[in-house]
Amino acid sequence: MHGLHIWFKKYEFYILPLLIIGAVLLLVRLFSAAPDTGTREREKVLPLKEGDTIGILAPAAHGGMTDYNRSIELLESLGYKVKLAPSVTDDYGYLAGSDEERAKDLNDFFKDDSVKAIVCLRGGYGSARLLDKLDYDMIAHHPKMLIGFSDITALHAAIGEKSGIVTIHGPMMSSFKGDNYTAFTLYNFENGLSGSLPKGDIRLPAGKTLKTLTPGDATGIVEGGNLTVLASLCGTPYELKGNGAILLLEDTGEDPYRVDRMMEQLYQSGLLSRVSAIAYGDFYGASPVGEEFSIHDVLAYYAKLSGKPAIEGVPAGHGPDNLFLPLGVKATIHAKEDGSAVFSYDESYLK
To answer: Which of 116, 161, 115 is closest to 134 using CA atoms?
Structure first.
C-alpha cells in the first residue's frame, strides 16, 4: 500500500485530470440521455392563418398531379397558398423522385420558414427510404405541422423520436381528390390547420361510438399510425419506442392472418408491453368473407395479451372519416367496464 501511495503521488499530476474528465463525461451522459418517449415533452407547432403557405410533399409514391387539382383548389379555397415540392411531379418507378430528391424536398420544406405546414400528397410506399437522409437536428429547430397517414407513419415515428416535435396523423391531399371523404373529415382537417380544434374528447361521426376491448385507464402521448409500417420498422434505428404512449393502430386491405402476424411482431418486439394503452383506428376493407377469425377477433386477442387498456372505433386511417390527430401530445384513455370508452386530449398541440 505504501508503494501504491508513492506511485500515486508521483503521477497525480496526470491521473487527477483524467479522473475529473471521466466524471464529467459520465455526468453529461447521464443528464443528456433522452427521456422516455411516453413522457417526453414534444415541441408544439403553430396554427395556420389566412395567406400562409402550405408545402405539398410526396415522400412516398408518385401521383399524377391532374388527379390532385381538386385538392389544391380546396386548400386555396380555405385561404392558403400552395407550394409544390419539385419531386411531386416526378415519376421514378413507383416513387415520386429518387430518395435523395424526396429527402431534400422534405428537409428544404422544414428549413424554409415561409412554408408554415407540410401536407403529404399520398402514401403508398417509400417514406422509410428517407429516414437515414433527414436532418433531424434542423427539423427540431423548425417545428411545423407535418400531416399525413398510412406510409407517412415512418416519418411520424422517426421525426417524433429524433427531432422531438409534434406531427399530425391526418388527411392528405389524396384524401380529397375524389368523393370518398366526408364533411366530418373536412371539418377536422380545416379546423386542425387553423388551430380551432379544442382539446378534450375526440370528435366522432354521428352515430359512432368508441368501444372497450380491455378495460382500464391510461395517460400518455399519442404515437403510432399504420400497423404495416410500424411492424416494418421493428429492429431498425427508427422503430417506435412507445414508452408509456397511447398506441394508435390502423391499416387497410389486410386479411386477419396478416394483421395477426404484424401484431405478433409488435408483441414480440416488446412494443405492446411498453405502451400504456392501445387505440385501434380503422382497419378498412380488411375482413374477407369466410375467415375463421375476424379482424375484431385478432385485435381483441392482442389487446388482452398486452394487458393494457384498449379501445376500438377511433375514426382514423383509410376510411372516409379521418380525424386530425396530433402525435406526441398527451391524452387519456378511459376504457370502461360497461363497454363504452373515452379518448381525450389533455393538452393542445399548439404553441
So the answer is: 161
Among 335, 290, 289, smallest CA distance to 312 is for 335
- With 0-12 / 13-18 / 19 or more C-beta atoms within 10 angstroms meaning exposed / middle / buried, residue 94 is exposed
| 178: three-class secondary structure by DSSP | coil
- Beta strands at 53-57 and 115-120: parallel, antiparallel or unpaired: parallel
User: What does the alpha-carbon distance between residue 167 and residue 154 come to, in Å, rounded to a whole number?
Assistant: 12
As given in the structure block, the three cell numbers for residue 83 are 407550394
pTM assigned to the model: 0.87
Residues labelled catalytic: 150, 250, 318
Q: One digit per residue, pLDDT tens: the chain, 351 residues?
A: 555 455 445 555 555 555 555 554 444 343 443 434 444 679 999 999 999 999 999 999 887 766 678 889 999 999 999 999 999 988 889 998 899 999 999 999 999 999 999 999 999 999 999 999 999 999 999 999 999 999 999 999 999 999 999 999 999 999 988 777 899 999 999 999 999 998 999 999 999 999 999 999 999 999 999 999 999 999 999 999 999 999 999 999 999 999 999 999 999 999 999 999 999 999 988 766 666 899 999 999 999 999 999 999 999 999 999 999 999 999 999 999 999 999 999 999 999
Residue 216 parent element (H or E): strand 216-226
Domains and CATH numbers, the chain: 53-194 (3.40.50.10740), 203-345 (3.50.30.60)
Give the residue among 184, 155, 179, 180 at the shortest CA–CA distance from 168. Answer: 155
